[in-house]
Amino acid sequence: MIRYIIKRLLYLIPVILCVSFLVFALMDLTPGSIVDSMIPSDATPEMKQAILEQYDMDKPMLYRYAKYMYHFVQGDLGKSDISGESILNMYLTRLPNTLLLAVTSLFIAALLAIPMGIRAARHAGTLTDTLTTVVTLIGMSMPAFWLGLILLFIFSFQLRWFPAGGNMGFVSYILPSVCNGLNMMAGTTRQTRSAMLEVLNADFLRTARAKGVPERRVIWKHALGNAMIPILTTLGGNLSTAMAGSVVIESVFAWPGVGRLTAEAIMSRDTKLACGAVIMTTILYVVMMLLIDLAYAFVDPRIKARYVRAKKVRRRAVS
Amino acid sequence: MFGKKKKMNTQDQVVLSEQHDSDYVLEVSDLVVHYELENETVEAVNGISLRLKKGETIGLVGETGAGKSSTALAILNMVPDPPGVIKQGTILVNGHDMLHLKREELEKVRGKDISIIFQDPMTSLNPVMTVGDQIAESVMLHEPVNKAEAMERAKEMLELVGIPGERAGEYPHQFSGGMKQRVVIAIALSCNPKCLLADEPTTALDVTIQAQVLDMMNDLKNRLGTSLVMITHDLGVIAAICDTVAVMYAGKIVEYGTLEDIFNHTMHPYTEGLFNSLPRINQKGSKLIPIPGLMPDPTKLPVGCAFEPRCKYATAACREKPVENRQVSDTHTVLCCAYEDPDFMLDRRRKVTDE
């Protein structure tokens, strides 16, 4: 198990290299750069040269990338070119907002999706099932930014129930969580439905019923326990994405999270900050996915056995 | 969650067993089970009556599609609905009217008064629960015990079926097929049911394990005093453990009698056919005589005898009118109109008399 974790974490190295290089390259390819706004229109060529040199803009992109990575491997994400603040600090102060929003969204999604998916599966082919399909289709096809704007329009501007942006405590979480949660809910409902459909005809449910297990427990313990893996995959994928910070949702709700930080960094051409934020997000994402993989072992003993068996075989091969 | 139910359960148990004064643990009368599909109706069980006393074993024999498993599911009121419908009949399990109980009451009877062993042990166990938990779950549902006591009981049950109690914490994938079937049997017997249905419990196992499992079931049955309905297509299994035999064909019992009646005084041509298709070890070189043809399409059953197209004794009369059940002796009935002719005798019987 530990070997597996280490192996997965080692995969991070090439991923980080690729991701950071892409960020640097894309930022360089887009016209304009951070120094454009810094150089006054009446600057002398010497002044201009000095500013360019200060930001290494007179050197090729690869030089800047190499320099950045040189600091990065020493654990230094550097300082923002614009505010001069430590990038790591900027990221970490924004992160809790994003994480909390991710968790509340996930709760809303799971609380809606699992019962709905189970219901649809148990009544497959009936009106309930069709209605669920329609609801999930709407949920899937509604773009987050549009749903966000509609929610803001109704509940913030018309009804004035919730604040329109920023994080002002509990009430601020409701609209973005609902918006994010509804989008996650759609996919998870579909996944729950199909996973449950596969399990509902299983022989072991018949065994459970035959020994007098109440129907509710047959469904929620015996059936759902076996349908959990695909549901967990969908929910986990959603959670990881949400934890990485949704640029769209955070922008619509003016949410002070890492998604918006990244977006702002790109807008202001702050390459170092953008790259730092993306690398941090990548690490977070990969670690989350790993945690979900490990969670499978707790849901399904057969997967756990596979980890153990792999270890035994390896030991045998060594001896 | 379980606490409340346990109390109700034991009280009910007392009341119900007081009401129940019949000798029979299981009484099925005139059971009809149909599967109503969109454009056709599968007539799986067409009027079956069975009675089983305490400690008795009855065998249900017949080929695939004869309605044996549907009968078993109907006894538990677990016919998958839709498409399955129990059209008529009454089923009394230890005095409980299975077809008219509310769902909660039914859940109390299942596992406690009657339980079932399904055919395929590979898929009958929940892969994500330990076998101990699966046995203990049944105990906790039906008896006023806490989790630790239920687990103790689960371990005892495992020992009873020949699995070391320490293995209670293992998952089904860690057991072989025969071992899994033992676990399934342990679940079924965990609450000392009055009646046990065994739906081809050895079919999915290999031959060496079959004998072991059968021996064990026979032994447990005798020790616990459980009545057993053994569903099988294997006459050898029947001979080994049954007191009474019901031969089923196309959803009907064509011959019903004691083991002696069926094996030594065979009356129905179909039963004779089953015996002829058994290999005989003591007669080297003798050929098996299969029953020609196939079981009739259960969506289009004939008016007359369903076995008529495959029967070598068939006459025109067989096809035209419904067959009446004929009482041959106190214990023996047969569903065949050939016996309207008083001199009629099966070849099998004739041979025996000739010798």
Give the SSE layout.
The complex is a heterodimer of chains A (319) and B (355).
Chain A: H1 2-10, H2 12-29, H3 45-54, H4 61-73, H5 87-122, H6 127-141, H7 144-158, H8 170-200, H9 203-210, H10 215-243, H11 247-252, H12 258-267, H13 271-299, H14 301-318
Helix pairs in contact in A: 2-13, 5-6, 5-8, 5-10, 6-8, 7-8, 8-10, 9-10, 10-13, 12-13, 13-14
Chain B: H1 2-19, E1 24-36, E2 41-53, E3 57-61, H2 68-75, E4 84-93, E5 96-97, H3 103-109, E6 114-117, H4 121-124, H5 131-142, H6 147-160, H7 177-189, E7 195-199, H8 207-224, E8 227-232, H9 235-241, E9 244-249, E10 252-258, H10 259-264, H11 269-276, H12 316-320, E11 326-327, E12 333-334, H13 347-354
Parallel strand pairs in B: 3-8, 3-9, 6-7, 7-8
Antiparallel strand pairs in B: 1-2, 1-4, 4-5, 9-10, 10-12, 11-12
CATH class of the largest domain in chain B: Alpha Beta
The CATH architecture of the largest domain in chain B would be 3-Layer(aba) Sandwich
Overall mean pLDDT of chain B:
85
Number of helices of chain B: 13
Strand content of chain A: under 5%
Looking at the chains present, what oligomeric state does this protein adopt?
heterodimer
What is the structural class of chain B?
Answer: alpha/beta
Question: Helical stretch count of chain A?
Answer: 14
CATH-defined architecture of the largest domain in chain A:
Orthogonal Bundle
- CATH topology title of the largest domain in chain B: Rossmann fold
